[in-house]
Amino acid sequence: MSDLVTFGIDRGVGVITLNSPDSLNALSDDMHVALNRAFVDAYRSEDARVIVLTGAGRAFCAGADLARLTALIETRGASYDIPRPGSQPVAAFAGIDAPPELLTTYTFPLAMNKPVIAAVNGPCVGVGFVLAACCDVRFLSDRAFFDSAFPQRGLVAEFGLAWLLPRLVGHGAASDILLSGRRVRADEAQQLGLANRVVPGDDLLDTALDYARAMAASAAPSSLRVIRRQLWRAHHQSYGDATAEAWDLLMTALAGDDFIEGVNSFLEKRPANFTGR
Which pLDDT value is given to residue 71? Predict the structure, then answer.
C-alpha cells in the first residue's frame, strides 16, 4: 500500500491514517487512490471489526491539495472526470455491497460494513470535513477544528454535506456553519453534537483506539453491520417501516450463530467468541 495512506490492524481494530503531514494531509490525486484502496482493504478485512480513521502530524485533512485545486481552476473542472454519485460504477469500489451514491472517496465511511471512528487530530477542512462527518463517531483533539470553507472558495456544500450535517447538528446550526464557512473549534463542535468526545491532543488516538477495541471485543460483527445499516436506512423510512424492518432483521438475528454465542457467553460469564454469522 502507498505510504500516503497506511492501514494496519491491531486487536480487532483497523487504523487508516492519512499520511502526508507536510501537506496537512490534503488530498492529492495519489492520496485519493491510496485512500480508496485502504477503504476497500478495511471493508474486506475479517480481522478488522472496527475502523479508526485519522491523520498523521498536526492535521486530520486540509481538504483538496493545491495542485488539484489549480488544475480545476485552469480547466474549469474539465481535467477531472468527477462522476455524479450513483450515476456509474466506480472501478476502485468494484464488488462493494453498498448504495452506489455512497461509493466516493469522501463518503465511503457511510458505505463501510463496520463502524468507523474518526480521530480528528487537527484541522479538518473542506472535503476533509465531509470525510469526518460521514464517520459514525467523531473523537476530537482539543486542538482540532472544522471549517467547510466552501463559500470562501466559490463552491457548494459538497458530497451531500447539506443533507448530512443538519441531521448531526440541526438545520439552524448547519446553516450557520455552511453559509458562513466559519471555523468550528472542538469545544463548540461537542456542544453542537458534531463531536462525540473532545480529549487532549496527546491522548486522542489512544482514546479512540480504546473505544474501538472495546467495541471490537464485545460486540457481534453481525450486529454492528446490521445496526449501521438500520441507522442509515432510517433516514428514509417512516417509523412504521423502520419497526417492520427491525422485526424482519430480528428474526434473522435470532437464527444466527452470533445470537447463540452472545447468550451463552453471558450465561457462562466469559468473553464472547463471535464469528460474524
Answer: 67
The yes-or-no verdict on residue 152 having pLDDT over 60 is: yes
* Cα–Cα nearest to 123, from 192, 35, 174, 56: 56
The answer to whether 166 and 145 have CB atoms below 8 angstroms apart is no
Pairing of β 183-185 and β 145-147: antiparallel
Bridge-based pairing of strands 13-18 and 50-55 is parallel
For the whole prediction, is pTM greater than 0.85? Answer: yes
Q: What is the pLDDT of residue 233?
A: 84
Rounded to whole angstroms, the Cα distance separating 112 from 40 reads 9
Residue 76 pLDDT level (bands cut at 50, 70, 90): low
